Amino acid sequence: MRENVRMPAVHPAAYLTADIGATSMRAAVVATDGRLLARRQVPTEAARGIEDATGRLATLLAAVRWEGGVPVVATGISTAGPVDPSDGTYRHPPNLPGWHGHSMAADLSIALGTPVYVGHDATLAALAETRYGAARGARDLVYLTVSTGIGAGIIAGGRMVTGASGGAGEAGHLIVAPDVRSWCGAGCPGCLEGVASGAALAGEARQRSAEGARTALGPDADAVEVFRAAEQGDALAGELVEACIQHLAAGIAGLLAVFDPEALILGGGVMDGLAGRWDDLLATVQRHALPRYAESGVPVQRTVLGDDASLLGAAALAAQSSQGDATGTLDP
Question: Distance (Å, rounded) from C-alpha 155 to C-alpha 192?
Fold first, then answer.
């Protein structure tokens, strides 16, 4: 009688992914069906330089690759920008000081032994939303990340909009309040990022505290503390959060007017802080929006993918680029 032979399990190929932000670098192994098989995280510490960050990210990716335990065919990198997607070269990134003119793609490719593809974090998050999010299947979508900085990802006609040099989507630098003190790292006066990002909330709170405002917020307050203090009735914190809502609403209404998307998805830590003011934000956007939204309401919603959006988008980019698929589709 022929003995039963146990065959080894066959694992499908997967993708290594990373998300580089101003605060942290995250790495994951993403299966072709979108499952995250393993993940790790380390601080970005951008001021230590891109070479240092490249080495630490390579180590992080190698570790998560081992934990994932499946073959990987390519690596996708989602990063704060601006960044040129053709070679991963940074172009004056305000939240990654000293990284301008440099790329980590080639060094990572050598260290990992895989092709490495780089894209703007918000653009890749937008791609992920059309594949896995609440707006799955959308061909015209805007994703706005509101975190330490603010950026947008744009999908038009089912394709990522990256611009001539990868600079498309810098919606954080739309001028919405030219007469307001701005905390933009790129020096744009009164831009959305300079008045409504996490860095802007923290910067204004610290400055007002130093100027003698009556507040429980101290000289080292961050955006999380601003939202917490506002919930507890701190007058200054409440004023800053209200201003954030007004400025964000103006920027969102402008993006709706320009792109007419099926959906505009909001993500990022500031949106987590505004969760309790969601209805107020929507109502304010509605007041600013064009008449075409009067009956249907503004197509604005929070992401259901959370922080995984950029990691999933990086996997979609790796799939698109390594397989020659113009849509960046992963298997459903």
Answer: 21
- For 259-262, the CB contacts below 8 A with 24+ separation are 259/140, 259/142, 259/154, 259/156, 260/140, 261/138, 261/140, 261/141, 261/142, 261/299, 262/135, 262/138, 262/139, 262/140, 262/141, 262/299
Task: Give the SS3 label for residue 14.
Answer: strand
DSSP letters for 220-259? T--HHHHHHHHHTT-HHHHHHHHHHHHHHHHHHHHHHHHH
Task: Tell whether domain 136-302 is in CATH 3.30.420.40.
Answer: yes
Domain-by-domain residue ranges, the chain? 14-126+307-323, 136-302
pLDDT (tens digit, 0 to 9) for every residue of the chain, 332 residues total?
A: 334 433 334 445 799 999 998 889 999 999 988 899 999 999 999 999 999 999 999 999 999 999 998 999 999 999 988 899 999 999 988 889 999 999 999 999 999 999 999 999 999 999 999 998 989 999 999 999 998 889 899 999 999 998 887 788 989 999 999 999 999 888 899 999 999 999 999 999 999 998 988 898 988 899 999 999 999 999 999 999 999 999 999 999 999 999 999 999 999 999 999 999 999 999 999 999 999 999 999 999 999 999 899 999 999 999 988 876 544 444 43
3-state SS, residue 27 = strand
**Which numeric CATH code is attached to 14-126+307-323?**
3.30.420.40
Q: Do 14-126+307-323 and 136-302 fold alike per CATH?
A: yes
